[in-house]
What does this fold into?
Amino acid sequence: MVDRNSTNPEPGPVIGRLAPSPTGSLHLGHAHAFVLAWWQARSRGGLVRLRMEDLDAGRANQQHVDQSLRDLEWLGLDWDGPMLRQSERLEPIREVAYSLHRSGLAYACCCSRSDVRQALAAPHAGEDEPVYPGTCRGRFADLRQAERQCGAPVGLRFAVDSREFRFHDSIHGECRHRLDANPGDFLILRRDRTPAYQLSVVVDDAFQGVTDVVRGADLLDSTARQIALLRALNLPEPSYHHVPLIVDTEGRRLAKRDNSRSLTALRDAGIDPRQVISWVARNCGLQVPSRVGANEVVSSFTLANVTPSPIECRIDDWYR
Ligand SMILES: [Zn+2]
It folds into this structure.
């Protein structure tokens, strides 16, 4: 792993983060990533920040916020300072989006998802989002003209170029990504003026002073977008650690709709949270008893033995 502080004689503290999105029950995949994030910070004497990524107004609700907090506490994870709720930071994050527009790095866009799909002759199969064809790039002189011409509120899209992004991930090694190939110019502000995920993450990571991002490998694909935004905003780049995904016996990623492995279901079934912690520790090659507290693992923790391969979730023996 590259020591990003190697030229700095007095490196600042490690600041990690737990950033659940309260849109459903947390499951063992989330637990795995959160416990690793917590150990990564605590084992280096660092701080842990908590952030609720609750910008999805349709799905995020207070019940899920409370449930996420209960799940983290059940696992024995704590955090420093107050919880940050992204829904309370809409204005400052929006302002960053408009600043990127003012500096010519983002442009107004009135395309809906179906507009984007229709503009493509052959959408790429299997991708979450089709590559944006650039319909609105250079189309409007300013926001007012865009809104007048579209007859509706417009979103903002970050303009990407054909540069290759290279970044280091402590688990995946050197990664390369061309944003023009995937996903093209991407939304930073939605047409309903809600900041988009990628922008919110980088603005709030910087706001919370996060130095180390530990999260699931499904977000590896987002990293180049986030680095592009960090560089455009002249914000520091954190170290990245994308931990393996947890998959079921058929190799499918655990999903929030799959309640059997939700932490609430495990708790209700009388599973000891120390079994969950032991499972996470053993997944990283650590030798621990079958029940262990999160605190007890801190001193022996290292990400060094973690490999990128997905981990199959075998927990049947917990119920015996
Ligand atoms: Zn557009």
Notes: Residues 1-9 have pLDDT under 50 and may be disordered. Residues 23 and 59 are 5 Å apart (CA to CA). Residues 28-42 form the longest helix (15 residues).
